[in-house]
Amino acid sequence: MRSRPHDYELLDLGTAGHAESLSDAVVRGLTSERKSLPCHLFYDERGSRLFERITQLDEYYPTRADEEILRDRAREIVAATGPPIELVELGSGSSTKTAPLVDAILELQETLDYRPIDVSRAALEWGADSLLPDRPELRVRAVCGDYEDGLARLGPTTRRRLVLWLGSSIGNLTRPDAAAFLRRARRSLAPGDAFLIGIDLRKDRAVLEAAYDDAEGVTAEFNKNLLHRLRDELGAHVDPDAFVHRAVYDVEDGTVRMFLESLRDQIVRIESLGLEVPFTAGERVHTEDSTKYSLDEIARLAEDSGTTLERTWLDGEARFSESLFRRG
Ligand SMILES: C[S@@+](CC[C@H](N)C(=O)[O-])C[C@H]1O[C@@H](n2cnc3c(N)ncnc32)[C@H](O)[C@@H]1O
Questions:
Q1: Which residue's alpha carbon is at the smallest distance from atom 8 of ligand 1?
Q2: Is residue 120 lining ligand 1, measured as CB closer than 6 Å?
Q3: Which tens digits make up the pLDDT trace of 128-166?
Q4: Which domain holds residue 107?
Q5: Nearest 5°: phi and psi at 28?
Q6: Residue whose CA is closest, atom 15 of ligand 1?
Q7: With a 6 A CB cut-off, is 19 part of the ligand 1 pocket?
Q8: In 3D, which of 310, 240, 237, 245 has the Cα closest to residue 76?
Q9: Number of domains comprising the chain
């Protein structure tokens, strides 16, 4: 329970945002020739809890590597950004990684507004509960909704904005889509504002496939959460155990792709949507991409998004990066 409720504000955009609703996504994605569902649908409360478990897995190096950089380099990152800062975060989740940056900023200024934007209301609440109690100088103004809707509602500030996008969430977009997203996001920022983006790096297939298909099966359960949502929220007649989780690294493209693969010929009936979705054995639903970058590809992302790449920090094993992109 939050000790200072007056320092927490939540704007819930509900269905007003432009993140596609579950039923629209199911109609569009499961009736197309190559079946797919968008990855933001993973994150209901159960999905957000499963993601928190993924971050603790031995195989899931990105969280540890990202945390290492943010913990060891927080002061450098804040100095490079240039205070006084207002901190915005896209897909903040439980905000666990954000604490060192918050503390480094509060060493240099007396107060801080933190503006997390996430489709998961549960995760926003966990984040505020963990950050607020020990930090009387902090105010949290959260938006529950899609990234772009949240950015469009930031309004004016006299401070420099630092927009965090951690945990390699940018990898859910293709490289061209990521550049286009940053171009649009820039419009909500002023000259001199910056993005700090956590980007996972290209590496060995075995390491990557294990990170997205752990021995305990937590990532499989996370992927299958989509089927649980279809069953529980849309009344779909679907057995999650009739599908299997797949994670495949496309080396050339530098992308890990996640799928739900049908174990047999079957028909998934969703009466609430008037849909009957046929599957053949082995047919896949594409559920997530996780694009990996080389350092050259990170530099190209800056060029293609019209930002300036000022600095990149790596973890000790050079598995993961944090890059500061400035809006000119
Ligand atoms: C991979 S998790 C990362 C969480 C945290 N930033 C970290 O690094 O551990 C992605 C987060 O982004 C949120 N998210 C995914 N798609 C989103 C969207 N389109 N708009 C807003 N939030 C989104 C999810 O709810 C989830 O909390």
A1: 167
A2: yes
A3: 999 999 999 999 999 999 999 999 999 999 999 999 999
A4: 5-12+58-204+293-327
A5: -70, -50
A6: 40
A7: yes
A8: 310
A9: 1
